[in-house]
From TrEMBL, chain A:
One of its GO terms (molecular function) is branched-chain amino acid transmembrane transporter activity. The chain crosses the membrane at residues 21-39, 45-66, 73-89, 101-120, 127-144, 185-205, 237-258, 270-300, 320-341. InterPro entries: ABC_transp_permease (IPR001851), LivM-like (IPR043428). It comes from the Bacteria. This is Branched-chain amino acid ABC transporter permease. It holds the Pfam family BPD_transp_2. One of its GO terms (cellular component) is plasma membrane. Keywords: Cell membrane, Membrane, Transmembrane, Transmembrane helix. It comes from Prauserella flavalba. It is a multi-pass membrane protein. It is found in: Cell membrane.
UniProtKB/TrEMBL annotation, chain B:
The chain crosses the membrane at residues 12-29, 57-79, 91-116, 142-159, 188-208, 269-290. PANTHER family: ABC TRANSPORTER PERMEASE PROTEIN, BRANCHED-CHAIN AMINO ACID TRANSPORT SYSTEM PERMEASE PROTEIN LIVH. One of its GO terms (cellular component) is plasma membrane. InterPro entries: ABC_transp_permease, BCAA_transport_permease. This is Branched-chain amino acid ABC transporter permease. Its main location: membrane. One of its GO terms (molecular function) is transmembrane transporter activity. Keywords: Amino-acid transport, Cell membrane, Membrane, Transmembrane, Transmembrane helix, Transport.
Length: 364, 298
């Protein structure tokens, strides 16, 4: 007779990704939703919101590895996202490499740039790092505006990177005699990549490097004492997070087909920080959850601005607050409220609910 | 030579504003160990309150300056009381993010109340200038430098000789020992936020009286004051003033010689000069020019 399904008999059991039947059922349900959703929701607006959310989720997973797991503050995420978008424009658009290659090229460029910043993380902690990465956003903005050959300068650049993996072209998907719209194809592409990146990240954090990162986060000196090379892991985390951010940027650019330097500003970095805080620091699942809640917010506010009292629907129109300002205020408010009242984020709430049912009828 | 001196003068005036903001950063950092990203919001709030007092309520400019500093101080102390007090003992990440959150709440509130368009504060200086030795000095710039010098001097006297200043220094040095001596940490924290906010408001209204006028983006100047604080050393008030002046000079000189020397680096290089300087100084002297070296014990 086998042990009960919830019994854990060692670390290996604890670390299993989909150990319990419940987790396996949940996974199966998610896969079904993933496959079916674009055929049910064919509305281009909702699909594009979901695609942007997916791209944001990829970037947020990257930031969460750095901030949530390794404890390094970065306000410079927007810089790496921008770098990725321009990489896609040049490598995917001009040179015309296929999707897997331009995605990898963007990741490599992101990692290289992250590696340049890495040495700072060795000497600087906490506050200093926040300010240096803040400077990075401004220096980056200057670069994007002035490297006109690479970025098109202030007027921006079109991104004509293709989206085909082998024979499958996600821009005009044709499967089993059915043809699908660009948004449907991109939904499958982006969320497939979200699953891939999440799986990679999850596998990273449940193995030795992941535990090392968390040791560095909790107390870097103590980590060094027990034999973790804190410096290497900090730089590694920076490179990995930048690589993932650049991939998100590359996807963003080639989905939007046009990018300009105005997009890679401090607000974008803050949006990502809001996502990892709202979702839950130090959880992969939380980064995706946060991206769904916070990432969809700007698009929804923009769409329903007429229904929200006091919001201007056009420049100089009625109402006292613009859509942009409302977004900004909401990000700020979400960060403050979650940090004060629910520091573990949405993932923390979810885990509490789960623990409640697991322990029911006992309250602990 | 004249052009060089003229640029230096502009740099000193700009640097004075940075020095005021950076001093505010240092005051809060020293006593509470928090870097206050919301300083830019407080600066903008102070400037706009000054506009309301001076233009809408037609108060004399000098009184308007005092009033806006006082109300900004009140807002700063309230922030500390309502939000930051809850975060005592939390990791620096959480606290920094809280202040960033506050910044991003304040900015839209300001545009919601006062709008986006540029405003001119009624002030006694306007664009009047005086000439001396072939150089043209803006009256506002002279006042900015003078007021900053006076405020900085007053700050150092307060810090050095008053009992509250002593309490603040002790709390910065060792909070537990200070508590054991019966010093109220709450009062110290609230005071440092109030001082920082008042300094920011002063910087804001001085900036707003200048040729740039008053726009919502005025708060960005506080972000450029971060490099000033790092340059001088995060825990050194004197360093903050020095850093502010150095950054201001560097920025003004770069702007002055943009066409001759820096055209290869693209337009508006002066905007990123503070950050580049900061990166250089961090590589050479991570604790700043006058800061104390951080000792890490295992």
């Amino acid at each position: 007779m086998g042990a009960h399904r919830n019994v854990t008999r060692g670390y290996a059991d604890e670390l299993r990704l989909f150990g319990t039947p419940l987790a396996r059922t949940g996974l199966a349900a998610l896969v079904v939703v993933f496959l079916v959703l674009p055929t049910v929701v064919q509305n281009d607006f909702w699909l594009s919101v979901l695609i942007y959310v997916g791209i944001t989720a990829i970037g947020a997973i990257g930031l969460n590895l750095l901030t949530g797991y390794c404890g390094q503050i970065s306000l410079g995420h927007a810089f790496f996202i921008g770098a990725g978008a321009y990489a896609a424009a040049r490598v995917g658009g001009e040179i015309g490499l296929p999707l897997p290659l331009w995605l990898l090229a963007a990741a490599a460029i992101g990692a290289a740039l992250g590696g340049l910043i890495g040495p700072f993380t060795l000497r600087l902690r906490g506050h200093y790092l926040a300010i240096v990465t803040l400077g990075l956003v401004f220096i980056g903005e200057h670069l994007w505006r002035n490297l006109t050959d690479l970025t098109g300068g202030n007027s921006g650049t079109p991104v004509t990177a293709g989206a085909s993996i082998g024979p499958i072209d996600f821009n005009s998907l044709n499967l089993f005699g059915e043809s699908y719209s660009r948004n449907q194809g991109w939904f499958w592409l982006v969320w497939g990549l979200v699953a891939l990146v999440a799986l990679l990240a999850k596998n990273l954090v449940r193995t030795r490097p992941g535990r090392a990162l968390q040791a560095v986060r909790d107390r870097d000196q103590a980590a060094e004492v027990i034999g973790v090379r804190a410096g290497q892991y900090k730089i590694g985390a920076f490179m990995l997070s930048s690589a993932i951010a650049a991939m998100a940027g590359a996807l963003f650019g080639s989905y939007q087909q046009f990018v300009s330097p105005d997009e890679w500003n401090l607000l974008l970095s803050i949006q990502y920080i809001a996502i990892v805080i709202v979702g839950g620091l130090g959880t992969i699942f939380g980064a995706v959850l946060g991206a769904i809640f916070v990432g969809a917010l700007p698009a929804l506010i923009d769409r329903y601005s007429e229904a929200i009292p006091g919001v201007q629907t056009s420049v100089g129109g009625e109402g006292f607050i613009s859509v942009f300002a409302l977004n900004q205020a909401l990000f700020g408010l979400l960060i403050v409220l979650f940090l004060v009242f629910e520091p573990r984020g949405l993932a923390g709430i979810w885990l509490r609910i789960k623990a409640y049912f697991k322990a029911w009828p006992f309250s602990y | 030579m004249t052009a060089f001196l003229q640029n230096c003068f502009a740099g000193l005036s700009l640097g004075s504003t940075y020095a005021l903001v950076a001093l505010g950063f240092v005051v809060i950092f020293k006593s509470t160990g928090v870097i206050n990203f919301a300083q830019g919001g407080l600066l903008a709030l102070g400037a706009y309150l000054g506009y309301t007092f001076s233009n809408n309520l037609a108060v004399a400019f000098g009184v308007a300056v005092l009033l806006c500093c006082a109300s900004a101080a009140l807002v700063g102390a309230t922030f500390e009381r309502i939000v930051l007090r809850r975060m005592v003992g939390q990791p620096p990440f959480a606290v920094i993010m809280i202040t960033i959150g506050l910044l991003f709440i304040l900015e839209p509130m300001i545009t919601a109340i006062w709008g986006f368009d540029q405003k001119q504060i009624t002030n006694p200086w306007n664009i009047r200038t005086v000439e001396a030795g072939g150089l043209v000095f803006g009256v506002r710039d002279l006042w900015t430098i003078g007021l900053t010098a006076a405020v900085v001097a007053a700050f150092f006297v307060f810090f050095r000789y008053s009992s509250l200043g002593l309490a603040m220094r002790v709390t910065a040095f060792d909070p537990e020992a200070a508590l054991a001596q019966g010093i109220s940490a709450r009062r110290v924290y609230a005071t440092s936020w109030a001082i920082a906010a008042a300094l920011a408001a002063l910087a804001g209204i001085l900036m707003a009286a200048g040729p740039g006028g008053l726009t919502p983006s005025i708060g960005f100047i506080a972000l450029a004051a971060f490099p000033a604080m790092i340059l001088g050393g995060m825990d050194s008030p004197a360093g903050a003033v020095l850093g502010g002046l150095v950054i201001g000079l560097a920025e003004a000189l770069t702007r002055g010689y943009q066409d001759e020397l820096f055209s290869w680096a693209g337009s508006n290089v002066s905007v990123i000069v503070p950050y580049l300087l900061m990166i250089v100084i961090l590589l050479i002297r991570p604790y700043g020019l006058l800061g104390t070296k951080e000792v890490r014990r295992v």
